[in-house]
Each structure stands twice: as C-alpha cells, then as structure tokens.
Design goal:
5-stranded mixed β-sheet; elongated
Length: about 500
Amino acid sequence: MAKKPPFNLEILQVDKRSLQGVPQITVLDITDGATDNLHPEGLFSTEFFGRKGEDRRTEQFAYIDMNTRILHPILYDAYSKLKGLYKGILEGTDYADWDAKEKDFVRSNELDGQTGYAFFIKHMADIKFKRTGSAERDDRILLIQKNMDRALIRYLLVLPAGLRDIEDDGTGRVKKDEINKKYARVIGVANLIGKDGETSAQDATRKTLQNTLNDIYAYIKDLLDGKSGFMLSKWASRSIFNGTRNVIASKNAVRESLDADNLASVTDTGIGLFQIMKGTLPITKYALRTFMASRFSTQEGNVTVVNRMTWKPESVTLDTADIDAWTTSEGVEKLINRFKDAAVRHRPVMLGDHYAFLVYQDDKGFRVFDDIDDLPDEFSRDNVRPISLVEVCYLCQYQKWYEFGGYVTRFPVTGSESTYPTRFYTHTTTKTKRLLEYDARWQLQDTHVAREYPLPGMAFMDALVPDTTRLAGLDADKRGYFTHTVRPFGNEGDVTL
C-alpha cells in the first residue's frame, strides 16, 4: 500500500480578497426594531444565511471586521508557552525592554520598561528564540516562524447560523448557543475602535478582543477535538455496535505446562475484562442481573445483605436507586461503564451501607456466600473478605468469558491482515490464580474453573494482546489503534454483537 502524507491542518488566512461574496455582520440586534423579523445585518439574518430549513443556513459563513489586527489564537498560545514574559506584555501586567542585541524582550520595571499589546506586536517578528533542546519548544518556534505572515488577523469568520441558531424554549424566551455571546462581544468591541486601532491607546481594547477570540477558538476546538468531539464522534468515527477500542501489549506465554487451560493459544487474542464486558454488553448485563438476583428475591421489597460488623445476613429495605442499579438494564449498564475507572474495581460491592456478599479465596479455590458462620472450621477466616466489584463482574460468568469470539481490526488499515477472526481470552489483573469453585459442601468442583481469578490489590490488564503470529499483519510496531467486536461461538441465530 502506497504511503500517503499525513492529514495536516494549516492556519486559515482570511483577507479582504478571500471574503468577496461573504456577508459582513455589523450589528448586535437580533431582530429589526420592534418587529419579530431577524435583523438583516445581524448574527441570524435570513438575508445572509437563508431561512430555517434551507441548506444555505448551515453552509453560509459570514465575517466580522474587528477594525484592528489581533494575534491568531494558535500563535498567541505558542508565544505564551514559549515565555511567560510574552503573555505578560500582551496582557499589560509585565514590563520589559527590547534588547536589539539579543533580539528579545528582557524583563524591566514599571518606571523604565514598556508593556502592552502594541509594544509586543511591534517587535514580535524580530524575536530570536533560544533553543533548549526541547522538541516541544522547537515545534512551537517552527509554528511561529512558518506562520508569521498570517499571525495577525483582522477578519473573524462566523459559523453558519444553522449551526448556532436561536430557539424558543417554550416559555417565550429565546435560547442562543453560547458562541453567539462571544460573537456579539467581538462586534460590540470592534464598533468602538476608531481609525487608529493599533496604537498603544487601544491596548485594552485589543486585549479584550484577543481574550474573546481565544474563547471562540477554544469553544470550536472542543467541539472538534478529542474522542467526544463533534468531528470524531459524528463524522470521522469508526463506531461498531458493541465494539471497543484499545492499544496492544506483548503476550506473556510463560506457563508451567503447555497443556494448561489458562494459557492463551495461537488462535486466541487476550482482552481485558472491561473490554469484553463492553463487547458482550447485552449478555453481560443479563449475567450480572442473574448473579445479583438472590439479593433482591425476598418478599415485601426487602433485600438480603451482609452486615458490615457481624458478616452475617440480614434483611433491609434499600432506596429505589440502589435497587435499580442492579435490577434494571440501565442501572447495570451504568455500573459496567463505571468499571472503566480502575480505582473502583477493587472496592467492595455495597448495597446501601451493607456488603452484597462475602467471598472466600485460598490457593485452591473460592466460594461466594453470605454468612460467616457457614465457613467450616478448617477454613481460615483470614481468607474471607467482602466481594469486590471486579470479582462480581468476573464471576457472573467466569466460565463463559472464554467462549466468545469476534474480529480484531487495526486502524488505519494497512493490509488484508489488519482484520482477523479470533477467540478472545479474558484477562483480569496482571497477577491471577487458576481456582476451582467450592460447592455448597465446601468441596472443590473440578469442572468449575476460574482461569484468571482477580487478586486483591493487583493492577489490571486492560490492553489487547494478539498472538505474536499476528503482529506483522497488524503492523504492530507502527502507530495505530485497534477495535474488536465480540460474539459467542456456536450460537447461530443469536444477536450479533
């Protein structure tokens, strides 16, 4: 596959020539006088943007003439991070002198130095930046040097009205998107600037415009940037129903016996417990509700819990919210989503102010129970503790976790081997034990095997672990990310996850 250049964004250069045919917004008024008609030169003008429902209302940009030149927010941020003195001069809080020999600002005092927007703009193109060996600093210097010809902007592009339109909230009041207040502030300040808009007399005004411009840039950037941004979540997402996204880790194939059932085979792909729960969401929700069903099956709305002091069962009445958390589909899904936070996984599962279950765990086996008096004398109480969230999530279907299969896909796709079918091997903590379950008579059951029983206090394995035979096809030594979808094997007709 041919190499392609990366997708890069450049600073937009907006000048009078490029704005030919783009309408200019000049007034703050929403409506025209005492009428209900939108002002023809305002932020919501139907003459500029068209009426609601028309394509033009979501496609047509406009602009505001700020009557002075302001630093582009990206360049302002770069200068500010290169040297705190630069930001202080722009904001009028720090005083400096221009050193023609060093070609840089040097800190001074209020009596001998100068400050303000105009003072900084006058010399900013002549600054000779000092290199420190920092790659991040070098990138900022390169950014400034490459864009010096477009560092100052006079014209502010305004988003199409359809993307920030006014609405009636049902009570007769008008609701406006937050960005409209920022645009209005720019118009109001720009209308106060005269012909000499770039002198020191306008420093305070330009500072206000700069801060407002920074706010607008940050607002739009937040819409587009990150996993939850508008662009990635709506337009550029690679969403797969009940699929998850993850990074990869190397496989640890060291085992005492190659015949061990707690060894991932070459056809398996390791996956973290949280990822497999998300990938099998409908099945996991059912399993968790089934596991907790015995707690909520009592009469008259009472719930069986374990007393925190005596470690004996008792019947209590819980708040509706506590009951819904474990008995409704929405509540259980919230608990699964909360499992993403590793800090909560080892915490005891609480029902109100009480423990949900007790768990016994030694080097051979485990058992979930609810009465400390049921523990046989030959079993140590030191091995008993309140059941944790990770234990509940793992034990709700600890044997079925290894029956799921699906597809792993490497993005960006680099070839035909970027996607492959696999059986998933579920990992829990970085250190685990292979344990059998004790039955009601506290006898070990050979057929009830927990291959990766999570151990208290251990860190969690949350990466995707392909077999080493898959690494070349996944181009795993290059930057990328992986998605995986999961479904049960041998269940034709089941919901495809």
